[in-house]
Write the structure tokens for this entry.
Amino acid sequence: TVLSGSAGTLPGGLRPEERRLLELLLPGALSLAETAAHLRLPVSVVRVLAADLVDAGHLQARAPIPDAELPERQILEKVLDGLRTLKSS
């Protein structure tokens, strides 16, 4: 599961753990396991906190993108090479 903050500012009335979780996720997204590691909390605890924040509309959760739907590495390398060529021109 990938978690991301859904608001630009922190809402009031949060418990300290919820605040830490949202502060971590507001600038971007992390997997549930990465979030737990950053917060130094068990994954099961972060799962419960995240579920509460999703229900309150403060957090978004989605399934990770399957490898089959990700762009191929060769295509990304060609795009990067093209950008480097443009930069050096």
